[in-house]
Amino acid sequence: MKAEQIRPEMHLRPIGAVRSEIKESMLTADEKGLALKERMEKIREYHHRIKNTVSDLVIETEFTDLLEGIEGFSHILVLYWPHLIAPERRGLKQVHPMGREDLPLQGIFATCSPARPNPVLVSAVPLLERRENILRVKGLEALDGSPLIDIKPYSLNYYGAENPAVPPWMEQIHRELEI
Amino acid sequence: MKAEQIRPEMHLRPIGAVRSEIKESMLTADEKGLALKERMEKIREYHHRIKNTVSDLVIETEFTDLLEGIEGFSHILVLYWPHLIAPERRGLKQVHPMGREDLPLQGIFATCSPARPNPVLVSAVPLLERRENILRVKGLEALDGSPLIDIKPYSLNYYGAENPAVPPWMEQIHRELEI
Fold first, then answer.
1. Which residue in B10, B81, B161 is closest to A75 by CB distance?
2. What is the Cα–Cα distance from B106 to B101, expressed in whole angstroms?
3. Contact across the interface for A93 and B152, Cβ inside 8 Å
């Protein structure tokens, strides 16, 4: 089967944008010059900060009616576009996770890298509050200004996994970041 | 903040397609004529069948290198496009869940309806096996031929939720469908 046989137009339009105090990614040029230990310390701080960050999802008012009932869910799934990733980076094939050359090269589909062929990022977050067209959430890594693609109600049936296993390199990162 | 300020081109290209024995959605014209009880019985059977269905994600060979390491994960997140949903249905605002008029109208963003402004569907599934560019998974609801948008490694950190609460209408559906 060739995917060429079925090519619907897959064009997305923003349904809103993220308003967050997180203005830039953790992997900035500055940090690339740091030794591994200092760098991981910075990343750990960054992750801790994100976990406690409260962001607003500002939905275009023409879509307010589509939010009816979302406040009945404790968690939502947020789909967004990492708008600061340059389009040419969508061609990357493999990376060292978090830019760490001590970890083995991984295919992009085996990582959470925002630079991927179709950069649609997904995050499950607690929904703190809805005010009309604005959803307040906690712990969203999306940078300020990220276009929103979709909001879904979180259901374990679709998005949960029982005892998911990850490879050693990811276990190591989680351990080092204390997440 | 207006989302108009930030409009990157958000165009997706298929990275592959789903090969599945599930050829059509449960909500076909046939079933709409059935009484509620019969209809729910059919939907329950359909869900049970999907849960046990084994599908193949056939990735375009140009992307095979991007899969390197995915076999280290027990679960993956699959993003796909519901290609049989007519584009004009992307304008729907509210629906009765599963077409059931006994359940209250919900905004599209509060439902799992495949007809939504940006129909990017997300499913967490066990990864059974990888053979080169083909990923074998279990329990994927995607219909045969659905274009694939992205494959992500499943990490509780991004996609898990602790004790997620859902509203009464969804609890009722889960109870009736025994899921």
1. B161
2. 11
3. no
CB contact under 8 A, A7 and B14: yes
Averaged confidence pLDDT in chain A: 91
Given an 8 Å threshold on Cβ–Cβ distance, is A10 in contact with B15? no
Any idea what the Cα angle at residue B123 is, between residues B146 and A47, rounded to 5°? 130
Kindly report the number of other CB atoms within 10 A of residue A100's CB atom.
Answer: 17
Domains of chain B with bracketed CATH: 11-89+120-177 (2.40.30.70)
Q: Which two tokens stand for residue B62?
A: 């140009």
A152-174 burial by CB neighbour count: b if 16+ within 10 A, else e? bbbbbbbbbbeebebbebbeebe
How many contacts (CB atoms, under 8 Å) link A and B? 272
CB contact under 8 A, B10 and A160: no
Q: Which among B68, B94, B166 is the nearest to A73, CB-wise?
A: B166
Q: Encode pLDDT of A21-78 as tens digits.
A: 999 887 654 555 677 788 888 888 988 999 999 999 999 999 999 999 999 999 999 9
